[in-house]
Amino acid sequence: MPGALSAGYVAVLISNVMGKHGWLGAAVALSVACTGNIDEDPIGLGPGVVIGDPEPLDCSGLQPGRAPLRRLTVGEYDNIVRDLFGDMSAPASRLIDNERDVISADVRIVSTTLATQYVNAAEDVAERATEDLEALLGCAPSNECLRAFIETRGRLAYRRPLEVAEVDAALRIYEAIETNQGPRGGVQAVIELLLQNPSFLYRVELPTPDAIETAPGIVRLGAYELASRLSFLLWQTTPDGELLDRAAAGDLDTDEGVERVAREMLADARSRPAVAAFFNHYLELGKLDTLTKDAATFPDFTPEIAALYGQETEAFVAEVLASENGSWETLLTADWTMMNGPLSDYYGIGDVEGDAFVRVELDGRYHSGLLTHGSITATRGRSTSTDPVHRGMFVRAKLLCGDIPDVPEGLQIEAPDPDPTLTYREQLEEHRSNPECAACHRLTDPLGFALEHFDGDGRFQADDNGLPIDATGEIYGSDVNGAFDGAPELAGRIIGSDEAKACFGTAFFEYSAGRAISGDFDACSLQSMVQRFADGNLDIRELIVATTQTDAFLHRVVDQDVFPAPPLEVEMDLEPGDAE
Predict the structure, then answer these.
(1) 3-class DSSP state for residue 464?
(2) 216, exposed or middle or buried, with CB in 10 Å at 0-12, 13-18, 19+?
(3) Furthest-apart CA pair in the chain: how many Å?
(4) Which of 234, 247, 263, 460 is positioned for an S-S bond with 223, CB 3.0–4.6 A?
(5) Contact, 506 vs 13, CB < 8 A?
(6) pLDDT of residue 571
(7) Considering just the CA atoms, what is the radius of gyration of the chain in Å?
(8) What pLDDT score was predicted for residue 102?
(9) How many whole angstroms separate alpha carbon 43 and alpha carbon 443?
(10) 479 Cβ partners below 8 Å, 6+ apart?
(11) Alpha-carbon distance 348 to 346, whole Å?
(12) Quick count: other Cβ atoms within 10 Å of Cβ 272?
């Protein structure tokens, strides 16, 4: 739905996100009966609330926000060694990296263990890459041949031309190792040098000595840095030679040039995995990797089914982008999905054969795009039943960026006894009848009730314990307050929400920037993105392109110390006996 989006919604959204409580930590406590004291309306929003429109944002000056030093993600590392050396072994996926699903550069810390593994990975890649030395180099090993190899592969690895001193240093390493280990050993040492250099492992975007300030203390990123940002955002890998050539030719020297190149890259098939990576992060599809269900309740559920749920969502998003005008509305409201034979059999829907995912029409009275995918309902369902609390928290936090208060101090938790004579909704009635619990649970439970037609394993259910399902609910504390019946009507309200549009834009902004939004510093960038998204018929591709036109993408502050320091988490590897 096109339409103007007020600055007020963006400002309120940023306020909510910046002040958001730990809703994930509260999930366990909120999911069971509780006693304690809490304000009746903890966030000051209730039925019929109208969010005010504060003073318009002043976006007359550049406000690029903070630009943290970003380390390559697991996917980026693997994609680069694939593109540089044809290595399809995904070496980074075997790293002990507890941050593989973390995007924020502020909390991605390199431990000594991980640093050692980077060394081992570089050695493994170098050994495989040099199995056919002349094919790799394109010529017989010699200093001249090696110099050309270092210049071309180094340019791709570092995302910029190498300095003469860097090339000479790599040649000296080759010569020193080649003396004892032969040409292959020398080339392996050069590759290991490239893959362990900070210019490879980190996306370095330091201002060059000749950078011209576009505003006091602010510079526009250089062409190579912009090529790098575009390539990692849209292709999830290092810029190829053609893109670096275009950077050198001045194609990225203007905002219009950046947008033109971004559109071309987004139309390239190489953008599909990158877009899928965003949705994998946004929808937390990594939860499927460890998803289990009670074998007695759901005997047919297996890890293979969980994996198929993820593939369904990825195929669905790709189909929406390819055939449905990239519509965010379609993502939430579609009465169809993508299935292959095994998934069709498990769902009990359609008559699909084979492993290829094809489009399958669904019953639009119950199904509604991503909201009713198994990847969402099963990961936010209990091992033996549905879970309106966690499903409602997903809708409120992920789709509406709504605030969920902390659990009150002194809260006592008592799990309700299962009652097979009641629906799960009826068993949760105390959350809404007890005033001490209702203030929080009215924000989450009613949203989750919309998905009660989908059991804990993600499959459709016509009844609950043999009783009719009540999928009605009401949204509180949003700009689209009101009643709904079932997932399709809930999705319709979300689509009509300006807050939801801004929330989705925020999720993509944080993903693209590798950090959380920084209050007023990012308000104008976020507003420009969301406005173009709303004006562009909610086309996700327009949101992505709009990201490349923001101050945050095109510029950087020279002195990063002007921003409040983010909280840091320090990881240390201690040997036994180092500390008690």
Answers:
(1) strand
(2) exposed
(3) 81
(4) 247
(5) yes
(6) 41
(7) 26
(8) 67
(9) 10
(10) 9, 50, 51, 497, 498, 499
(11) 5
(12) 16
- In single-letter form, the type of residue at position 334 comes to A
Q: Do 341 and 355 touch, CB atoms closer than 8 A?
A: yes
Q: What tokens does 91 get?
A: 């070496």
Helix orientation angle between 540-547 and 303-323, rounded to the nearest 10 degrees: 80
**Residue type, position 207, single letter:** P
Q: CB–CB of 334/489 below 8 Å?
A: no
The C-alpha atoms of residue 328 and residue 1 are separated, in whole angstroms, by 9
Tokens of 545: 């392109």
Quickly list DSSP for 45-91: --TT------SPP--SS--------EEPPHHHHHHHHHHHH---S-G
The β-bridge partners of 468 are 463
Query: How far is Cα 424 from Cα 444, in angstroms, rounded to an integer?
Result: 15
Cβ–Cβ under 8 Å, residues 185 and 178: yes
User: How far does CA 290 lie from the centroid of its chain?
Assistant: 18
User: How far apart (Å, rounded) are the C-alpha atoms in residues 98 and 373?
Assistant: 27
CA distances from 30 to 386, 388, 447 (A): 15, 11, 14
Task: Give the residue from 152, 170, 169 showing the smallest Cα distance to 161.
Answer: 152
Sign of CA dihedral 174, 177, 183, 189: negative
Q: What residue has token string 């809404």?
A: 432
CA–CA separation, 194 vs 85, rounded Å? Answer: 12
Helix 223-234 to helix 255-267 angle (10° resolution) is 30
> How many CA atoms lie within 13 Å of 52's alpha carbon, on the beta-carbon side?
4
477 φ/ψ sector (left φ>0, alpha ψ -120 to 50, else beta): left
Q: What is the mean pLDDT of each run of 10 residues along the chain (580 residues)?
A: 47 46 35 37 30 62 89 93 97 74 70 90 97 96 95 98 96 96 97 96 83 87 96 98 98 97 97 95 95 96 98 97 92 98 96 96 97 98 91 93 69 58 68 62 86 96 89 91 96 95 95 87 92 94 97 89 54 36
Dihedral in degrees, nearest 10, Cα atoms 202, 208, 213, 217? 50
Which amino acid type is present at position 113?
T
Place of tokens 């290092």: 238
The token pair at 326 is 């990239």
Which residue has tokens 């240390």?
A: 572
